[in-house]
Design brief:
37% of the residues lie in helices and 17% in strands. By secondary structure, it is α/β, with parallel strands linked by helices. The chain has 3 domains: 166 residues, 2-Layer Sandwich (Nucleotidyltransferase, domain 5), CATH 3.30.420; 196 residues, ATPase, nucleotide binding domain (Nucleotidyltransferase, domain 5); 233 residues, Carbamoyltransferase, C-terminal domain (DHBP synthase).
Length: 620
């Protein structure tokens, strides 16, 4: 049975294909269109998924869309009615779009499928599982567990903003739901907005900023108390009630009532690109602490309701790696599995899996070790010919290798000399993290690497941390964690033996002083609070990346390298060799490796479009 899953029309559109329950392919539309968080119908992603499987649309048994648009429309109408006459401007803006497009989504999807070759000779079922069921399915069905609690937390689906489910065998039962307008995801996004970052793309910046807050400052406790007294009524089961007097997202065009927030916290709303000050960092730490408190309470309630030993996580809030690490350390569950494409993109996969197991009633047989996502390498790949044609197009110079061990050894030496390397191998990752298939790499021992990567390669805020990729077998030697983290979704401390002491006044230093104080023997991957967002690299799922890190260890004694996504700020992660070469030439990257080909920046022809990306991509 062949089922195509689709998510679209809000943000992070994607497509995924399963065949008799096996995940064949999945990709986000942004990687093809080069528009970050592209919400449009994922025509390119659908084409790829079908081509990779060697199928036409007419051979599909079903197409599953990741939510129920009519329920979402119902929520919209009821919300405007409940808040009337407030929100008239927003209502007049939203209604034409809904009436023209989203009310008739079934027809629109059919029209898009016809454009892609659907002849209607065979009637394909078009299914609409609920948004949070799609999230739950995306986390539970690929997990290694036969029975698990499932926690999904995001901004909002149709009505639900969080859910607790039970997964057992092929079945998922929804046990609890939290409903709009009360939402942990929207609460976190409101602080993202107030602190000057873009909603739906800047939440991870807020997470990265939070550790720069001074945990000993009385402001932290004051902010947390204010949040819990004025903005959020937190119940013991983790459910929240948000005071809508302070928020504008339900009926307005902004996230918050800015004047009320400024009066509440005594801070002016930060505008994008404004300097980051101690008060911003402290407020960021306060909301991160509150978020972790809420997630832990939700998880405890999931444990109470299900009695399960294991937990599966999905929804945008499941991308909060710091919260995930605290949850794992809490011991509420024996272990947790987090869907790597936890946001709306992953809903495409979950919709297909929900259709297969729930609608069609097909059994679930866990035959895999680890999980069924195969490292999340589910996207497009390329051939040597593709690389050669790209090189010809740009008159590029390269060195080709017949032996991958020789290439790995040479690149390991290049990294050890302090160079930055773009690394493109095999199938592209599904989800927001680069996992060694579309990555930019560096030496974690190099104290200048974080600064160089942020300011000269990624062109982004200097406070942003970088993740370590570590050989899975050696994780416990370098981090306070002895499990696996293949999807870079867990934050744990750097091992004590690697840490360097900080001065007594460290907490009161400003952001810039903290940023460039060397905190460990691996300074470029050690965040301000001695933490790291770990990726464990496994030979079974990414042998080439594993081989490179092994070669780096042989030369340096260090089985860890810096890994960040292959893109500049505001650009989607690269997909093709052409994308990679263009990004390589637009930045101050030193080397590029695509498949078996090594490009040295010093040997490339002059690039005439060096700064064009700043106009091409909207800064996130």
């Amino acid at each position: 049975m062949k089922i195509l899953g689709i998510s679209a029309f809000y943000h992070d559109s994607a497509a995924a294909l399963i065949d008799n329950g096996e995940i064949v392919s999945a990709a986000q539309e942004e990687r093809f269109t080069r528009k970050k968080h592209d919400p449009s119908f994922p025509s390119n992603a659908v084409k790829f998924c079908l081509e990779y499987a060697g199928l036409s649309i007419d051979e599909l048994d079903a197409v599953a869309f990741y939510d129920k648009p009519l329920l979402k429309f119902e929520r919209l109408l009821e919300t405007y009615y409940a808040f009337a006459p407030k929100g008239l401007r927003s209502f007049l803006t939203a209604m034409p779009v809904w009436l023209k497009e989203k009310m008739f989504l079934k027809r629109l999807i059919n029209e898009e499928l016809v454009k892609l070759g659907y002849s209607k000779k065979k009637k394909i079922k078009l299914l609409f599982p609920e948004h949070h069921l799609s999230h739950a399915a995306s986390a539970y069905y690929p997990s290694p567990y036969n029975k698990a609690a499932i926690l999904t937390v995001d901004g909002v689906g149709e009505w639900a903003t969080a859910s607790i489910c039970s997964g057992e065998g092929k079945d998922i039962s929804i046990l609890r739901e939290m409903r709009f307008p009360h939402s942990l995801g929207l609460l976190y996004s409101a602080f993202t907005y107030f602190l000057g970052f873009r909603v739906n793309s800047g939440e991870y910046k807020l997470m990265g900023l939070a550790p720069y807050g001074n945990p000993t400052s009385p402001d932290i406790q004051k902010y947390e108390q204010t949040i819990l007294a004025e903005l959020v009524d937190l119940k013991e089961d983790g459910s929240v009630w948000l005071n809508q007097d302070y928020f504008d997202y339900a009926t307005g065009l902004k996230m918050v009532n800015e004047s009320k927030w400024e009066a509440l916290f005594g801070i002016k709303k930060r505008e994008p690109e404004d300097p980051l000050e101690a008060q911003h960092c402290n407020l960021g730490l306060a909301i991160q602490n509150v978020t972790e408190q809420i997630v832990l309470k939700m998880a405890a309630e999931a444990k109470r309701l299900t009695g399960a030993d294991y937990l599966c996580l999905a929804g945008g809030v499941a991308l909060n790696c710091v919260s995930n690490g605290k949850l794992q350390k809490s011991g509420i569950f024996k272990d947790i599995f987090i869907q790597p494409a936890a946001g709306d993109a992953g809903g495409a996969l979950g919709a297909a899996q929900a259709a297969y197991h729930i609608y069609f009633g097909c059994e679930r047989n866990v035959t895999w070790t680890g999980d069924a996502l195969r490292g999340s390498y589910l996207g497009p790949t390329f051939s040597d010919l593709d690389v050669e044609l790209t090189a010809k197009r740009y008159k590029a110079n390269y060195k080709a290798f017949d032996n991958f061990d020789e290439l790995s050894s040479e690149v390991a030496g290049i990294l050890a000399q302090g160079n930055v390397v773009g690394w493109v191998q095999g199938r592209m990752e599904f989800g927001p993290r680069a996992l060694g298939a579309r990555s930019i790499l560096g030496d974690p021992r190099n104290a200048e690497m974080q600064k160089k990567l942020n300011l000269k390669i990624k062109y982004r805020e200097s406070f942003r941390p970088f993740a370590p990729s570590v050989l899975a077998e050696e994780c416990a030697d370098f981090f306070d964690y002895d499990g696996i983290s293949p999807y870079m979704l867990l934050v744990h401390p750097v091992a004590d033996r690697l840490r360097k002491p900080t001065p007594p006044n460290y907490g009161s230093m400003d952001l810039r002083e903290k940023l460039y104080y060397e905190r460990s023997e691996l300074p470029s991957i050690t965040h301000i609070d001695y933490s790291a967002r770990i990726q464990t690299v496994h030979k079974a799922t990414n042998p080439r990346y594993y081989n490179l890190i092994e070669a780096f260890k042989k030369q340096t004694g260090c089985p860890v390298i810096v890994n960040t996504s292959f893109n500049v700020r505001g650009e989607p992660i690269v997909c093709t060799p052409d994308d990679a070469y263009r990004c390589f030439m637009r930045t101050e990257m030193d080397y590029l490796v695509v498949g078996n080909f090594l490009f040295d920046k010093r040997q490339q022809p002059e690039w005439m479009e060096k700064d064009n990306w700043k106009e091409e991509f909207v800064l996130d």
